[in-house]
Each structure stands twice: as structure tokens, then as C-alpha cells.
Amino acid sequence: MTGFRAAALAVGLMIVAQVMPGAASAGRLETQTCPTESTRLVVMGDSLADGLWGSVFRAFAHCSNVRVVRLTSVSDGLAKSAPEVWLDRYVQEISQSEAIDIVVVQVGANDLTAIRDGTTRATYKSDDWHAQYQARAAALAKALAARAATLIWLGLPVVGRSDLEDAYREISAMQAAAVAGSGGSFVDIHGYTQFGAGGFVMNAEIDGNTETLRASDQVHFTEIGYDYVAGLLQDDLEKYFSFKSRSAAVTGAELQ
Fold first, then answer.
1. Fewest CB atoms within 10 Å of the CB: 41, 171, 181, 244?
2. Domains in the chain and their CATH numbers?
3. pTM for this entry
4. Cα atoms in the 13 Å half-sphere on the side-chain side of 87
5. What is the DSSP string of 149-193?
6. 140 pLDDT above the threshold of 90
């Protein structure tokens, strides 16, 4: 590993270690209390994010004033599509006249590949690839944070494939460093998705019952597994909704 890559990874892992110290105590995202104001939750990313979208949708399905927007592309990522492409999808889906409330991002499962930009090609694992990937993650995080009231970016989970594990940790570290400079919130899910086992597991005992939490590919999750991953959004969602409620109350008092 070159000096550039080692330094970037060290910084990213330090940020990852700091952003989610209490992840192991998170629970399942279940039916949520509806916010007092109309809210949109945009879930953006690859196939991991698509499963996450399902959990968020189910949790707010009973809320008539919550719109859960699905901006996922199952085989895509930041290596294949530049941040401008992801941002254009966002802008095309969401009217500029509407205020975006919360954007949740999870991407990277398909990013172990070269980055092509016009006629240039950055070989995967090269210094140029690392620099370009870091820049792409930073550009997307900054653009989304500037347009949304809240940006929550989830890292990649622990996986059962040894050929992916280290690479996914490195990608999460770069994403964490990028999000830290945007004002958004990065959630490291690696340790939490061990579900208390100290490593990758397909099943875990939860509330006295053994549940299958991971899909057969050992990367994705089952429906209940995604519900537990989505539970890591709980604190950020509660803080945001609480802030919005307090803001509305203060505004109402001022107008009286």
C-alpha cells in the first residue's frame, strides 16, 4: 500500500471509529410515529440501499404526510456513475419547489472496479482510483447536504466473503472522510452487522428467537435483517423530527 493510500485509509478508519460508538445497541426500525409536518425521505444508492428503502417505506407506510422516495439502481455505484449522474437523478425526481427533508445514501457494493471518465480510466486499487473515488464521494455528499435538511450516509456491512471484506472497509473509510467534510452524518454499520457475534453470521438470536438476517450471497440482508440495519437511522430521524417540531412551535409562538 502506498503512502497516499495508507494515510487516506488511516484517516477514514479513524472517522469511522468515532461516528457510531453505540451502534450495537440499536434495534429494529419498526412502525414510526408520524411527524407533524409533511416530510420526504429519499433513499439513494445500490442494491443494499434498495433493501434499506423497503424497511423505511414499511416503517412510514401508515403516514399520509411522509413520502419515501426510491432512488436506487441495483448494479450501480460511484465508480460506474459520477456524482453528477446521481445528483441529476435526484433533481429529476424531486421538484425544485419542494424542500427535501432527509436523504439516506448507501452505495459502494459494486465499486470494486475501474473508474472511467470520458476517455480516461483509473485502474481499481491505483492511487489515481483512490483519489478519484474520494473526490466523487465528497462531491456527492457536499451536493446532497447542500440540498437536503439532513444527509445520512451508511457505510458497508460486514460480509461473509473474504475477497470483499477488506475492500468494503476501505470504501467505507473513504466515504466516512468524504461525509465528514459535508456536514452530513456517516453511520458505520460494519460492527453492528456482526450482530454481537464478533464476525460475520447468517443468523442471530434476537429476543429469544433465532432469525436469519443475511441473504445467501452473504452481502445483502433478509427483510428482517434490513429492518435492523434501518434501525441505525432511528436516532437521526428522531433528532430531526424533534427539531422540526420545536421549530414549528417556536415559529407559531412568534406569529401569535
1. 181
2. 34-233 (3.40.50.1110)
3. 0.85
4. 16
5. EEEEEE-PPP-S-HHHHHHHHHHHHHHHHHHHTTT-EEE--TTGG
6. yes
